[in-house]
């Protein structure tokens, strides 16, 4: 089950006292992550450290979408966390971790966050060389999952997303 490591989204006591607006933004980000995850997976199981989302994103099809045969197992092992030392979003193949950084503490629409989470998960499961991921990911989000609008509304930044 994909795990949202909520502890990583909780502001430290120092942030709570010295940066109350950032603390509030981190709380909203966590709420929006859980909203997006529930939309793509369904209701979670709740633990003391976070929520577990049991079903891989609705609508994905390994054959049609060109995904690794074990994409559902990869979903089960994926951890979603926040790291204030990071800026954007990234997917770590070795750790099966999706990390959201400081940029996402700024107001984002929930639909954009949903697309970002899907985009990063698809990096973990698309069965192509990384340099070819973005075309396939955009196709899956637009045509396979039928999510309206730009499939990658925030674009890609440098090497973190396999870009430049």
Molecular structure report:
The chain has helices spanning 13-18, 20-41, 62-65, 71-77, 110-125, 133-144, and strands at 2-5, 45-46, 50-53, 79-82, 89-92, 97-100. It has a six-stranded mixed β-sheet. Helix 2 crosses helix 5. The N and C termini lie far apart (33 Å). With 164 residues, it is α/β, with parallel strands linked by helices.
Backbone shape: globular
* SS-based class: alpha/beta
Gyration radius (Cα, Å) is 15 Å
Task: Give the low-confidence spans.
Answer: 157-164
Residue share in helix: 40-55%
How far from one another are the termini? 33 Å
Mean pLDDT score, rounded? 92
Order of helices and strands: EHHEEHHEEEHH
Number of strands: 6
Q: Nutshell version of this structure?
A:
The chain is α/β, with parallel strands linked by helices and 164 residues long. The protein is 41% helix and 13% strand. The longest helix is centred in the first third of the chain and has 22 residues, at 20-41.
């Amino acid at each position: 089950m994909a795990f949202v490591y909520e502890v990583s989204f909780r502001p430290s006591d120092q942030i709570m006292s010295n940066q109350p607006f950032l603390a509030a933004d981190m709380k909203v980000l966590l709420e929006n992550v859980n909203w997006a995850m529930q939309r793509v997976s369904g209701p979670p199981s709740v633990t003391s450290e976070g929520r577990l989302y049991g079903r891989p994103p609705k609508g994905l099809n390994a054959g049609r979408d060109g995904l690794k045969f074990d994409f559902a197992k990869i979903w089960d092992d994926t951890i979603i966390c926040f790291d204030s030392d990071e800026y954007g979003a990234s997917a770590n193949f070795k750790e099966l971790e999706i990390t959201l950084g400081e940029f996402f503490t700024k107001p984002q629409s929930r639909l954009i966050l949903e697309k970002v989470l899907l985009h990063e998960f698809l990096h973990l499961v698309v069965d192509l060389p990384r340099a070819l991921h973005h075309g396939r990911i955009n196709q899956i989000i637009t045509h396979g999952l039928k999510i309206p609008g730009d499939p990658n509304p925030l674009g890609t930044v440098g090497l973190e997303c396999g870009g430049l």
